[in-house]
Amino acid sequence: MAVGIAPTTSENSANYNGRITWFVVLSSMVAATGGIIFGYDIGISGGVISMEPFLKRFFPEVYTKMTQVAEISNYCKFDSQLLTAFTSSLYIAGLFASFLASPVTRTFGRRPSILIGGIAFLIGSALGGAASNIYMLILGRVMLGVGVGFANQSVPLYLSEMAPPKYRGSFNIAFQFCVGIGVLSASLLNYGVQKIKGGWGWRISLAMAAVPATFLTVGALFLPETANSLIQHGNDHQKAKQILQRVRGTTDVQAELDDLIKASDNSKAVKQPFKQIIKRKYRPQLVMSVVIPFFQQVTGINVISFYAPILFQTIGLGASASLMSAVVTGLVGTSATLLALLIVDRVGRRAMFSFGGIQMFVSQMLIGVIMAVKLGDQGVLSKGYGLLVLVLICIYVAGFSLSWGPLGWLVPSEIFPLEIRSAAQSITVAVGLIFTFIIAQTFLAMLCHLKSGIFFFFGVWVAIMTGFVYFFLPETRNLPIESMEKIWRDHWFWKRYVCDEQDYEKGDT
């Protein structure tokens, strides 16, 4: 039996006309800027909290442990709940904002959610850059979290709905590519401002999020709404047809428009999408909306994204070398995401998940062994072993950026029927933010208690998720987004849950 395999082409996709136009490319570039801000906010915190002037001002106890307590474990120098609250407050705020963003996205469209996200990013960056106390600092992170909640709800949907079915994977991965650019930009900026005289370089780091936020906010004013959204909340078929003609570069878009109208009619019969999604016929989508973002967070990538400079200081690198190492890993991640963008619609989602999972597992196991054997509690890695750990971390980051990084956003955004799409995307974003918050809030304590075992902990999860994808995730490459239900009906496991239309009419739950 062919496990987990579904057709990778569709008769419907052949009936859709169109090509990649500059109109859709530019619109998607503006929307994907939300990814740059998300990545920037992830990457900036780890570098900022490794800067001595920042620690002295806001977290003096951590600074004392780092500089004056010689006997403390390598793994426990940065263990502080207040310090992790600074990082994780963004994600708990994003969690609540994502549920508010769902009805906004469904009722008013994707563009208003993107605009709200951009405005929240602007407020958050201003508060962070001007912070004079810990309360102002964390409030700024909370506002950034509101922006994350709205942007992560709307941007992946926008990209999936604007893209031609044949190239949907590449367009959607542009979001993750922008996240990588944001992380890399944050690392470069942190490295550049760390030695500014007067010790106020951290203000520049926190405030510079306003640059992409301004681009996103202004750009959102001029973004076209997607045809899917116009039909769903406005029932304006003529305007939707005009948008389709512009983004597809052809006047013959009737086949795609008819499918969108049909999907919209089905969605309008659903008054409470959060109740609808728990029905039996949506069981595969509900499971994926929870499992995929959960797995994405327990890959351990946040060990690198949030705390890369701290992690590199743990293995014995100085502050400057740690920040430069974070730049290197950011560059590797961005390059690998660009490769993913180029090959995802040729290679397919499942193959990339599998290859990246194996790459991450092997590198994590090796890092754990080296740190257990060669570093210990109060030792220092030799230059050779420190370089080897850096190389292995780069291999791990490349594996994530080829698989769970971009595909963790792409697959959920393309598998949901229109009638439950906003609700399901909210669940996806919320689950991702819940576990991002949990890991961000507990990582420094986990590092202190598990020590090198933390890499084995995440490595086991990577093995589990790679097996799950192989057995339970069908291939979605080249399928029109409104014809995605076919993959579940053809899947060896999920077909037992997905009923025929006759069963739907019986109200099967």
From TrEMBL:
Primary location class: membrane
Every Major facilitator superfamily (MFS) profile domain range: 27-477
Membrane-spanning segments: 20-40, 82-101, 113-132, 171-192, 286-310, 322-344, 351-373, 385-411, 423-447, 453-473
Topology class, membrane: Multi-pass membrane protein
InterPro entries, per the entry: MFS_dom, MFS_STP/MST-like_plant, MFS_sugar_transport-like, MFS_trans_sf, STP/PLT_plant, Sugar/inositol_transpt, Sugar_transporter_CS
Alphabetical UniProt keywords: Membrane, Sugar transport, Symport, Transmembrane, Transmembrane helix, Transport
Subcellular compartments: Membrane
Source domain of life: Eukaryota
Alphabetized Pfam families for the sequence: Sugar_tr (PF00083)
Keyword Transmembrane: yes
Protein's UniProt keywords contain Lyase: no
Family the UniProt entry places it in: Belongs to the major facilitator superfamily. Phosphate:H(+) symporter (TC 2.A.1.9) family. Belongs to the major facilitator superfamily. Sugar transporter (TC 2.A.1.1) family.
Protein name according to UniProt: Hexose carrier protein hex6
Organism per entry: Datura stramonium (Jimsonweed)
